[in-house]
Amino acid sequence: MKPFQALLLSLLLLSTAVPTLADDYAVYESSSSFSDVMDGLKLAIQQRGMFINNLMHMNEMLERTGTDLGLGGPLFGQAESVEFCSAVLSRKMISEDPRRIVNCPFIIAVYTLPGQPDTTYVAHRKISASETEQSPAMKEVASMLEAVAGDAVSW
Length: 155
Description:
With 155 residues, this protein is α+β, with helices and mostly antiparallel strands. It has helices at residues 3-22, 34-47, 58-69, 87-96, 129-134, 136-153, and strands at 25-30, 51-56, 78-85, 106-113, 116-125.
């Protein structure tokens, strides 16, 4: 195989792997400001009677550790993750399968990319189709995550 063909094959294999990785995450885009989307996310969580456990300042942490370790430039313009809980949904999903404790608390991230402040992203892990097909509780969790993220980007 010629070097050029090998490079093309490698690029083709890499490009086909990306959708699989992307399927693990739901990412939503908004033209609203970072602070408006964050406010929308917090409100969407609280309106559903859920409790915000923690606000993680991801950008600050990554900037600090990047500087301390001498690792590259900024990864985000702004980035925060909201950790929250629904006692009802958590009990339902864990009652079906105790291993689902790893899904608790729920986390949704909001971020902008360096040099692109006009687009705000909201992301969360997707619940796999195999879980939602076999579990009413996980179907409910997946729907809740989608609805909360959708409300956040609608601001």
